[in-house]
């Protein structure tokens, strides 16, 4: 579903991504782990289209999307859940989901209340609100909901574009252990045919939600395999200086 081949990226003399390749099958949930500075975010930005790789290709459902913009990739089914604040604070949760769905379905018009009334848009909003447990908050303004609900909504907005592949950059950063657990449950309850790639440095999340794990170190893939194998890997213990055993 998503295939990266030989992605290479340098900033001046700093070689940040080194010949990174991986393949995600449909429905696979893969977590990319790595210590600070390993190049995770730089890799993520190449996949979503915010950075152009110096070398290598990105294929989505068999199509080469390496030359496409962020929006072009989104149209092909690659959606990103933003950590950055991309929600409309003055609008309700329902309106935020509706706008994403309206843009995706081509129903976005100047009079956006009309867009939100379209049956196709309403259907997506209801489906996504259920998937990410937002039903109780639909009519609340984003500015009034908790940080945790905002994070759920960010995932919901990404899902409202009906992606084939969902990318997330450190989805539980900044949330406490309880909320983090709720987020793990949310991820585990998403449709099984959705392919998910998560960049993370929290090993708990990786072991809880991942089917497969890739570990980056100094921009290079040093592990690619099943979570059980990752747990037993000496190399990974070294990279994480013992913290691995606490995972
Ligand atoms: N635009 C840039 N210009 C120069 N160097 C950069 C740029 N972006 C990233 N780097 C460098 O590339 C390296 C990898 O950074 P990156 O943010 O991709 O790592 P990371 O694994 O996501 O780290 P973290 O977990 O701390 O977010 C770092 O040494 C960083 O300083």
UniProtKB/TrEMBL annotation:
GO annotations of cellular component type? plasma membrane
| Annotated keywords | ATP-binding, Nucleotide-binding, Transport
Q: Where is the ABC transporter domain?
A: 2-243
- InterPro entries this protein is in? AAA+_ATPase (IPR003593), ABC_AA/LPS_Transport (IPR051120), ABC_transporter-like_ATP-bd (IPR003439), P-loop_NTPase (IPR027417)
Identify the Pfam families for this entry: ABC_tran (PF00005)
GO molecular function: any one? ATP binding
Which CDD domains does the record cross-reference, listed alphabetically?
A: ABC_Mj1267_LivG_branched
What are the TM regions of this chain, as residue ranges? none
Check the record and name the SMART domains matching this protein: AAA
Tell me the PANTHER family matching this sequence: ABC TRANSPORTER ATP-BINDING PROTEIN (PTHR45772:SF2), CONSERVED COMPONENT OF ABC TRANSPORTER FOR NATURAL AMINO ACIDS-RELATED (PTHR45772)
Q: Write down what this protein is called.
A: Branched-chain amino acid transport system ATP-binding protein
Q: Which organism is it from?
A: Donghicola tyrosinivorans
Task: Show the taxonomic lineage.
Answer: Bacteria, Pseudomonadati, Pseudomonadota, Alphaproteobacteria, Rhodobacterales
């Amino acid at each position: 579903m998503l295939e990266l081949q030989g992605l290479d990226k340098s900033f001046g003399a700093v070689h940040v991504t080194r010949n990174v390749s991986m393949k995600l099958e449909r429905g696979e949930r893969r977590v990319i782990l790595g210590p600070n500075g390993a190049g995770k975010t730089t890799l993520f930005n190449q996949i979503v289209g915010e950075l152009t790789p110096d070398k290598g290709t990105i294929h989505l459902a068999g199509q080469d999307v390496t030359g496409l913009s962020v929006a072009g990739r989104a149209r092909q089914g690659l959606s990103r859940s933003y950590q950055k604040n991309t929600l409309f604070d003055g609008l309700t949760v329902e309106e935020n989901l509706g706008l994403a769905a309206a843009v995706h379905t081509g129903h976005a018009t100047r009079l956006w209340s009309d867009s939100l009334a379209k049956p196709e848009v309403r259907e997506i909003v209801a489906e996504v609100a259920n998937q990410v447990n937002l039903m109780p908050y639909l009519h609340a303004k984003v500015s009034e909901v908790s940080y945790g609900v905002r994070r759920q909504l960010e995932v919901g907005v990404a899902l409202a574009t009906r992606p084939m592949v969902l990318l997330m950059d450190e989805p539980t950063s900044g949330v406490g252990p309880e909320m983090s657990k709720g987020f793990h449950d949310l991820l585990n309850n998403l449709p099984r045919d959705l392919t998910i790639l998560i960049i993370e440095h929290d090993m708990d999340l990786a072991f809880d939600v991942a089917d497969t794990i890739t570990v980056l170190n100094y921009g290079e893939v040093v592990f690619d395999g099943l979570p059980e194998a990752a747990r037993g890997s000496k190399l990974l213990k070294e990279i994480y200086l013992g913290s691995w055993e606490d995972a």
